[in-house]
Amino acid sequence: MDAPPRWLDPEQKAAWDSFIRMQETLIGRLSRHLQADSGMSASDYIVLVNLTERGDGRIRFSDLVKRMEWEKSRVSHQVTRMAKRGLVAKEECPDDGRGAFIVATPAGYQAIEDAAPRHVEHVRRLFIDALTPNQLSTLGRISKRVLDHLEKQPD
Questions:
Q1: For residue 116, what are the domain limits?
Q2: Phi, psi values for residue 122, rounded to 5°
Q3: Is 21 domain-assigned?
Q4: Does residue 88 sit within a domain?
Q5: d(C-alpha 42, C-alpha 68), whole Å
Q6: Largest Cα–Cα distance in the chain?
Q7: Global pTM value
C-alpha cells in the first residue's frame, strides 16, 4: 500500500507558491529584457555563459547537459540553432569518438560581451537591489543548501 501524500501545510504552501511566482516572474522579465537588448534568448545566454566562463571556451557536450539540467535533446537542438548563427561550434573529442566539445566562437564571445553588461544591470535592478546585504547572504546560503540537497537526491 502506498503511503499517503505528505501535503504541504499552509505556511509551506505559501513559501513554495511565493518562490515559484518570484522565480517565474524574474526569469520572464530578465528573458524579455535580454531578448529586447541583445536579440539573444535566455537559452543562448545560458549556453554562452557556461562556455565563456571557462578559460578555453569549450565544454564536453555531456558536461553541458549536466550543468544545464536540461534534456539531452533540448541541449542538442539549442546548440544546433546557435551553431547555425555562428555563436558556437561543435568539435570532435580526440579521446572519445562519440563525444563532442561545444566551443564558443569569436561571434559567441562578442555576443555575450555585448549582452552581459545590460543583463547584469537588469539582474541588479530587479533582484539584487530588492534585498539587503543580509537577506542576499541568507538567500545565498538557502540556495546552496537546497542545491546540495538536490545533489544527493535521485532524479
A1: 38-152
A2: -65, -40
A3: no
A4: yes
A5: 12
A6: 58
A7: 0.87
CB within 8 A of 108, min separation 6: which ones? 48, 51, 52, 57, 82, 86, 87, 88
In the sheet that holds 96-104, the strands lie side by side as 58-60, 96-104, 88-93
Tens-digit pLDDT profile for the chain (155 aa)? 788 999 999 999 999 999 999 999 999 999 999 999 999 999 999 999 999 997 789 999 999 999 999 999 999 999 999 999 999 999 987 776 677 999 999 999 999 999 999 999 999 999 999 999 999 999 999 999 999 999 999 87
**Which amino acid belongs to residue 93?**
C
Q: Is residue 18 part of a domain?
A: no
Dihedral angle sign, alpha carbons of residues 31, 33, 39, 40? negative
In a domain, 100, yes or no: yes
CATH code at position 122: 1.10.10.10
